[in-house]
Amino acid sequence: MLAMANRANRVPIALIGFGAIGSSLWSRLRDDETAAVRWVLLPDDSKRSLPPGIRRVRDAQAMVAEQPRLVVECAGHAGLREHGPHLLQSGIPLIIASVGALADDSLRSALDAAAAEGRSRYITVAGAIGGLDALGAARLAGLQRVVYTGRKPPLAWLGTQAEQEFALDDVRKAQVIFRGSARDAALAYPKNANVTAAVALAGIGFDATQVELVADPHAEGNRHEITAEGAFGQLHFEISNRPLPDNPKTSWLAALSVEQAVRSMISAFGASV
To answer: What is the CATH number of the domain that holds 6?
Structure first.
C-alpha cells in the first residue's frame, strides 16, 4: 500500500520528443517512485506511438494546460526553438538535452528572457562528456586554449553533413570529417555534436573552442576528449562510452546524463518544499 501511495505522488514530468533519449528516460522512470513521464509533445505529422499511460500533446500551450512540474527537451534544435521559450515564460522549468542549439545566440537570449519573465529556469546537461566542472573552475583563472575531439565509428555519422562529403562505408582509417569552432560544429552536426556546446559553455565559448570530429573505423565506442591550457596549468580528459542500443548517434552516457539532471531537479523540488 505504501509503495502504491508513493507512486501515486510521483512528480509529473513531460517530454518534448520521444526519440532515443526520451524513450530511454521513460523506461528508466517507469517503475520509479519519485517521477513519472505523463505527457509527450509531438508534432501533428509524427507517427511515433507512445506507451500506455502517456498522453500526447501537440504544442507548448497544450502542455502548459496539463501543468507538468518539469519538462525535458529531447527533440532536437527545432523543438527547443519552437517550444522552449513559451514553457519557460509560463513558469515551467526546462531541462535541455539539445545543448548545441544554444550556439544560436538569438535563441539563447530568448530562453534567458523567457525564464526571467516566467521566474523559471533552464539547465543544460553535460551529455556524453565529463570533466566540465574542472574546465569551469579553470576558466576562473583564465583559459588560453580548449580543444574538443569527438571520435565515433563511421556509420555513426550517417544522416549528417559528413555523409555528403565522405564515403562513410569505405572509411578504412581515421578520417577527420570536421575541423572548426564549437559554434560551427554544434550547428552543422546537431544530432551528434551537442557535447561540443556543453564544452563551450563550460569553458571559453562557442567561437574560441576548437573542435575536431573524426570518423574512425577502429573506434569501439564513442570517444570524447577535452584538452585545455591556461593559467591553472593543463587539463586532459578522455572518456569512451557505448552508444545507445537503439541509436548509434547517441552516447549511452548522454541519456543517463538527462536522467541524472531530472533526478537532481526533483531532489531540489523536495528541498524547496
So the answer is: 3.40.50.720
Q: With beta carbons less than 8 A apart as the criterion, state whether 160 and 133 touch.
A: no
Q: How many CB atoms lie within 10 A of CB 4?
A: 9
Q: Which of 77, 83, 218, 224 is catalytic?
A: 224
- Same domain, residue pair 118 and 158: no
Cell numbers at 216, concatenated? 574512425
The reported pTM is: 0.88
* Residue-number span of the structural domain to which 191 is assigned: 132-241
- Pairing label, strands 35-41, 11-16: parallel
Residue 247 in any domain: the answer is: no
Same domain, 14 and 96: yes
In the chain, how many H helices and how many E strands? Answer: 10, 13
Q: CA nearest 15: which of 5, 7, 4, 24?
A: 24
77 is catalytic: no
Residues 113 and 60 in one domain: yes
CA dihedral angle for residue 152, residue 155, residue 156, residue 158, rounded to 10 degrees: 130
Same domain, 176 and 200: yes
Determine the pLDDT at residue 5.
39
Give the CA-trace dihedral at 55, 59, 62, 64, to 10 degrees.
Answer: 100
Q: What is the pLDDT at residue 3?
A: 44
Asked whether residue 246 is domain-assigned, the answer is no
| Weakly modelled stretches of the chain, pLDDT under 70 | 1-8, 248-249, 270-273
pLDDT of residue 159: 87
d(CA 257, CA 127): 5
Question: Is the separation of the CB atoms in 120 and 91 below 8 Å?
Answer: yes
Reported in sequence order, the residue ranges of 76-192 that DSSP labels E, i.e. its strands, are 94-96, 122-124, 143-152, 175-181
